[in-house]
Every structure is written in C-alpha cells, then in structure tokens.
Amino acid sequence: MSDDQRFGLARQVTLPGPLPLDGGGSLSPVEIAYETYGTLAPDRGNAVLVCHALTMDQYVASPHPRTGKPGWWRAMVGPGCPIDTTRDFVICANVLGSCMGSSGPASIDPSTAHPYAMAFPVITIRDMVRAQALLLDHLGIARLKAVIGGSMGGMQALSWPATFPSRVEAAIVIASTARHTAQNIAFHEVGRQAVMADPRWNAGDYYSGEAPAAGLAVARMAAHITYLSEAGLTEKFGRRLQARDAKSFGFDADFQVESYLRHQGLSFVDRFDANSYLYITRAMDYFDLAEEHGGMLANAFRGTLARFCLVSFDTDWLYPTAESRTIVHALNAAGAAASFVELSSPYGHDAFLIDAPDMNRIVAGFLGNPA
Amino acid sequence: MSDDQRFGLARQVTLPGPLPLDGGGSLSPVEIAYETYGTLAPDRGNAVLVCHALTMDQYVASPHPRTGKPGWWRAMVGPGCPIDTTRDFVICANVLGSCMGSSGPASIDPSTAHPYAMAFPVITIRDMVRAQALLLDHLGIARLKAVIGGSMGGMQALSWPATFPSRVEAAIVIASTARHTAQNIAFHEVGRQAVMADPRWNAGDYYSGEAPAAGLAVARMAAHITYLSEAGLTEKFGRRLQARDAKSFGFDADFQVESYLRHQGLSFVDRFDANSYLYITRAMDYFDLAEEHGGMLANAFRGTLARFCLVSFDTDWLYPTAESRTIVHALNAAGAAASFVELSSPYGHDAFLIDAPDMNRIVAGFLGNPA
After folding, report:
1. Is the same domain home to A217 and A322?
2. Which of A170, B67, B108, B322 is the most interior residue, by most CB within 10 Å?
3. Helical (H) or strand (E) element with B51
C-alpha cells in the first residue's frame, strides 16, 4: 500500500479560468487546494469526489495542518473504508470561497495585489461545483464514479448531476436539503450579523490587523446549536454544572453546555476566516435547486445518468428527513434511480460526522463493496 | 366606568427592603414600577397579578411610554376581557432586574451613587416573585385571586404558589416550563456572549456612553428565531425576496426573513437595556423549580391552595407541550387541581402574545367568566 492511499497528497493548482459565476462576472485565476488519496486507474474510472460542509475542508482523511486534528471523515475514507482508497481515487477540494487554499475573500486580488475581502464575488453552490469541474478537467477526469457529501457537501453532491448530467455515475447525499428554508436562512443571518457587528470586521478589511474573532465565535455558537439535537444536548449536558458544582450567581460559564459552546466558538476562530463564513453561508442560503430549474425540482434531475443514495437522520432538525423525502420524490418523478434511508441517531445534524456505522454500511453497499 | 379600568395607572414605589436574594445578600431599597387596572374590592379579594415575559414590561394593557405601542396583552386584560378590569383589580409589575422602572442593573446603587451595572446582584425567578410579594404587602393584598403569565411570566406564575402556598388561589401558566433545558440555556448563552462581545458593553459599564446596541441586536435576533415556529416562518416568509425581487449577490437583506430579523434586533435596542438582558436570561437559565424543592417537582406544590390552569401550543419548540405535561404530572402527584390544554397554532412560542382566542376563552372560563 502506497502512502498516498493512507495519507492524503496535499496539492494546490492555479487554473487560469475564467470561471463564469452565477452572480454575473467571473473569477480568474481560480486557485484550488485539494487532497487526493489512492491512485487514479488507467481508465480513469475510479474517481470519487468528496464534498465538504460549511466549516470543513479538504482534509477529509488527513491531519488538519492548523489544528493537527485527524481528518473529519476518517471512518468513511481510507483503506478498507466505505470509500476504499485501495480501490478508489479520492479527491476532496476546499470549496470556492473558503480559506484553506482555494480562492476566497482572503486570497490576493490580482487587480489590487491586496486580499479581495468583500470585493470577492458572491458565489453559489453551483459555482463551487463548477470550480470542482475545472479541477477534474485539469486532472483529466471526465466522469466521476461517485460524488458524496453531507450537509453543504450534500448540496454539492445534488448540484453535480444537475449541472453536469453526464459526468456523474452516482451521488450520495447525506443530511442535506435541496433548498434553504426561512429558518435555515434566519440562523445564518444571525451569524453574519454577529460577524458584521464586530468592529474588527471593518467592512471585511481586517487582513492587516486583528480578525473579528469575537463576532465569529458568536456566529459559530449560534450555528452549533442547530447541529445538535435537543435530546442530544440534554443527554450530553442537561443542566449539569461545571466542576465547582454550584451556581456562581455570576456570568461565568456555570452550566456545562455554556462552557462547551464557548469552547466551540473560540476554537473555531483559530482555523476559519470570518469573511469566508459570510460568503459560504450566503451560498447556502441562495441554494434552491428547484429555482435553478424552472421552479420544479424534478427538472434538475431529468437526463442524469446518476443513481442516487439519500441518507437522513431522525433527530436532524436543521435538514430534517422531510427535506430528503422531497428530493426522493423529485428523483422518482424524474425517473432517476434513488434509494433512501432515514437513520436513527441521538446526535442531530452532526450525526454524519460523529459516529454512524449504519451510514458507513449504506455508503459501502451503494459503492459496491462487500458487506 | 372609571379611567383606571380602561387605562393603566402608572405607579412606582421605593420599598425599604431589604429583599433577601437566592444568591445570598439582599437588595435595599427595592424599586418597583407597576401598572394597575380596575379597583381593589373592599374585601381585597379581586387582585389578579399578571407576570410578564423576558422583554415585556408592566404595560400589559397601556401604551408603552417609549414606543407608543399598545399594551402587549390588550385582548387579555381590559373591560369585558378574560381578565375583566370592571371586576378584577389587575397588577402588572416590571420584574426585578429589568429596565422599565424596577430595580435593575441600570438603577443607581446607593452605595456608589452610580448605576449598579454588573454590581447588581444576580437574581432568580423566585427573587422576582418575592419582590412582587413585597409590592402586594405594600398594597395591603394578602392573597391573589389569580396569578397569570406566559413564558417567563408562566415561570413566575408557577413559582408564586410554590413560594407562597397560601397567598394564591389560582395560577395560570401559559407556554412555559418548570426548568430551562440545555438547549434553552444554549440559546440564552449565545445572546449573552453576543452582548459581551460588543466592545461598547465594556464589562457592563456603558451608562455614561454608548450602549452595546449591535451585540444586543444580535442577541435579540437569535432569540427571536426560537419564538417562531419553522412552519410559521415558512408561511410568513418562505424564501421570498425583498421588493427588488432578485438576489443582490451581496450581503444586504435579500430575503424577507433577513429584513424581519434585522428589524426585530434594531427596534429592540431602543427599548431595552443590555445588562437587563443578561440578568433576566440568567434568572431564566437558573430556573429549575424541582431543584428548589429537593429535586422533585411535585414537592413544589404540596400544600398549595391554588388550582392550576396550564396551556401550551403545539408549535412551540422553545417550551414544548411536554414541558407543560411534566408540570401537570407533578401537580397531579401533589394532589393539586389542574386543568391542561394544548392549543393548535401556527405561531410557535409567540402564540400566547399574538392571537389566541382559544387561550382567551380558556382563561375567561377558568376565572369564572360567562362564556
């Protein structure tokens, strides 16, 4: 087994573009940072694209260079895993707009030689997918064996066959949705306002000074509540107090859940760019696959070659099972092959990241692995 | 009909105290601002105490002096209303810790001649109730015909018979809970962190300068999401865009739900003190009526004279029906008379404030009105 089956190969390319964008205009050049695992087969037929969620990155099965933490989907990607790197050539690219090496608001704008900041164009999920297609062109991969993702990664996995009907053989969409609801948008708007309320945000122009860490931490805390189930929070924390075991009658973190949220907020700001958080949440809020196809979701999937696998979690209140069911109905109406499973988990939306052996078995089976 | 049946009489008293507090220590003097409606009967047997929610105030049926808006429960309190001011003497007092005339962090600390700010003691729901009892003593009211409230007002309405078992004949508890859950605490903690992240908060010491309006607005936005149901948000806003009818591909409020939330945040900061928001959310998070009674909720109600009426709303995900049911089970176990109704409403937690003729009928019937 070669090292690049077990450990990712970190790569970065600068593609000339221009990449036309949904908002009008285009981006040029387009930088894409990505990891690969395994070896591309001579017929180039074993490429699997893994799409990451809002705050994740290309380090799907490699240690994160800033935090040193292991990859975010190690149980899914690796030798003998459901996405088996001894068989598949796995690509995971940092999405457009993010901050781990792909073009985003922190990138240098060639026209000014300074970071784009808020001059970076507002992008969409489809723009992210188009950038990934540029990368596949660069790698000489005409067609994907599969595209897979959870949460915002699932939006990309849906957008792929809708945008490139003949370039995807299979799409796996986990804990995701075909459009952001009013409540989804509302939570993201609170996060954006928290960032923008931080004076250090300075209309996005903070790269030569201090970042708006306080605002970004609040945004992360608010979002984090939506990633967990009420029952999961109760099981994990309930009303348990911190170690001192009595109320402080002050404003320190008395309850364990307060301390947990503060930690989530603080650790996030060390690894993520506030402007990227604005751009990516905006892309998610704009996502409405039906709207892109004449208002009818089934139209998004007419003519696709892909077969689909949908997975939802029963305690996910961010993208509840009903959202996956809506997608399955549209796939059925379009005559696309679709399988769908709702899994039981106490972990809410985060279930797809935490511990889901059932999910792993479903993905393995769908990709044709032995059980 | 006298004017004070139709319009409230605004009053404020400064009681010498000291008021002993759950956190240790005491408060002295205790200022209480309150409104009354109707006339106290010669036998003093017609007093109804209305308890307000987190960001509400004593202006239950009178115009708000800062915003000019009509009272927050006009359909409930007034001549011919369920709480009929031609029959009942209605009292509504600004809670301890708030900012509409009762003692709170913006009040002058007599020991320094400056606002208390964060030197104000951390208070509990039971402290609020004890302050109300001081007010009743001052008014010569030994026993309440009824105490009623929604949300945090319902916590007070529960705490009243638990704290003063012989002073309450009836308690009406609407859209409320006997304890804050981990998720409830989490949302409040996000709001507090948003306030504290605003540099203008300045550790609470901002009364001689600019208030932390940006942080408080974010806190209000996050809280507001919890007051509405997902279905209600979808019905009210869906993914509808603002008037310009096309995505801006920028960070202005494109979606109506964004504009609505921003308005909620901005209008709140004109009428509410950020430190009061910290203190009152803390009091709610500390609330756990069972914990105050040896860990068994039924113990809170043993020996009470009161009969109880519980109302919940099916789309309230802040204090869902299960929380009311827990209270009813405890009341049953304690042998207290209890009636309970879950009402259907699209409006989520806010249903008790918005439009609930069924709720009004239930309250009227429970208080012995003709239908």
Report:
1. no
2. A170
3. strand B47-51
Q: Which of A151, A159, A229, A276 is catalytic?
A: A151
Identify whether residues B313 and B267 lie together within a single domain. no
Asked if A61 and A71 touch (Cβ cutoff 8 Å), the reply is: yes
CATH number at B347 reads 3.40.50.1820
User: Any catalytic annotation for residue B349?
Assistant: yes
A241 in the same domain as A131? no
Do B310 and B197 belong to one domain? no
pLDDT of amino acid B246? 85
Nearest alpha-carbon partner for A315 in A352, A342, A348: A348
How many domains in chain A? 2
- Is residue A270 located within the same domain as residue A293? no
Q: How would you class A243 by CB atoms within 10 Å of its CB: exposed for 0-12, middle for 13-18, buried for 19 or more?
A: exposed
Residue B119 pLDDT exceeds 60: yes
Q: Which of A57, A198, A254, A316 is catalytic?
A: A316
Tell me: do A348 and A257 sit in the same domain.
no
Rounded Cα–Cα distance for residues A78 and A85 (Å): 5
Assign residue A194 the CATH number of its domain: 1.10.1740.110
Of B183, B238, B255, which has the smallest distance from its Cβ to A225's Cβ? B183
Residue found by looking up tokens 């909720």 in the block: B297
Q: pLDDT tens digits for B143-179? A: 999 999 999 999 999 999 999 999 999 999 999 999 9
Check if A151 is active-site. yes
- Provide the CB-side half-sphere exposure for A211 (13 A, CA): 17
Q: Would you say residue A263 lies in a domain?
A: yes
Identify the domain boundary among B280, B301, B335. Answer: B280
Do A38 and A88 touch, CB atoms closer than 8 A?
yes
CB proximity A126 to B under 8 Å: no
Per the structure block, which two tokens stand in for B192? 């507090």
The verdict on residue A343 lying in a domain is yes
Measure in Å the smallest separation between the Cα of B283 and chain A Cα atoms: 9
Question: How remote is the C-alpha of B129 from its chain's centroid?
Answer: 12
Matching residue, tokens 């999937």: A301
Contact status, residue B5 vs residue B38, Cβ threshold 8 Å: yes
Single residue among A230, A261, A280 that ends a domain in this structure: A280
Q: Is residue A371 part of a domain?
A: no
Identify which of B182, B225, B291 has the shortest CB distance to residue A187: B225
B80 and B203: one domain?
no
* Same structural domain, B154 and B273: no
Q: Which residues of A touch B217 (CB under 8 A)?
A: 193, 197
The answer to whether the Cβ–Cβ distance between B189 and A261 falls below 8 Å is yes
What's the longest Cα–Cα distance across chain A? 67
In whole angstroms, what separates CA B275 from the centre of its chain? 16
**Rounded Cα distance, A28 and B370, in Å:** 74
pLDDT, residue A1, reads: 43
The residue segments making up the domain with residue B229 are 184-280
Distances (CA, A) of A318 to A54, A264, A268: 13, 18, 20
pLDDT per position as a tens digit, A329-369: 999 999 999 999 999 999 999 999 986 899 999 999 999 86
DSSP 8-class letter at A144: B
What is the distance between the alpha carbons of residues A84 and A74, in angstroms, rounded to a whole number?
11
Of residues B127, B254, B273, B316, which has the active-site annotation?
A: B316
Whole-number pLDDT of residue B371: 40
Here the ipTM equals 0.94
Q: Is A186 close to B251, i.e. CB distance below 8 A?
A: no
Query: For residues A64 and A21, is the Cβ–Cβ distance under 8 A?
Result: no
Give me the phi and psi of A5, to 5 degrees please: -85, -35
CB A270 within 8 A of CB A64: no
